Amino acid sequence: MRSGSKNRGGIGLLLAALIGFAGLPALAQAPAGGTSVEWIKKLGGLATEPELDLAELKKRAAERIKARVEPIPNKRPPMAPELNKLPHLVAEILFDEDAAVVRPDSYRTLGRIADTLTHPSMLGYKFLIVGHTASGGRRDFNLTLSQRRADVIRDVLVNTFKVSSKRLVTLGLGEEQLLDRAKPGSPVNQQTQIATIGSSIEANSPPVAPAAAVPAKAGTHKPKR
Q: Span of the secretion signal (predicted)?
């Protein structure tokens, strides 16, 4: 009997310990995709400003879908292959399904993007936010959805994180320029691309105050209220 009581007591202690550990907060993990320093390196060094006609690209994408050009996703030629030759980064920003609503856990990533774009070494540049989707469903819906999502990312960066609207433009390509053509339906094709496309009016702004010249830590860009 005493042996059984000891066993039951040991099991009780073990369960209590497990319950206690379950109640502890999970260890914070650094978001994937590299540090802000790495992102700055990826976006810097634009040699020549590209000749991008965003209105024309949007028109061509819509016309290609309407004409049902190349129904097989991984055989479609990219709409704007020159974008991949520009300094750029790809970030995972999650949205509600079939909607242009950023999920709360992706605001940390948007804050890191804001850190990068507002770093003193980046203030002379203008950026293009490119929305993509995986292949599936209607192509015209995906094209519209990708544009709405790119616009929402810009709005969050401008309104929440106070990045200058003069430095951001958007383009939605839907599934017309897959990030992974070998796997058209992969979630990787829903990631967002940010490319450096030219100089910004910020380059002529007054010099940055010394205190602001200290490199920001990853994910430290906080919304201004």
A: 1-28
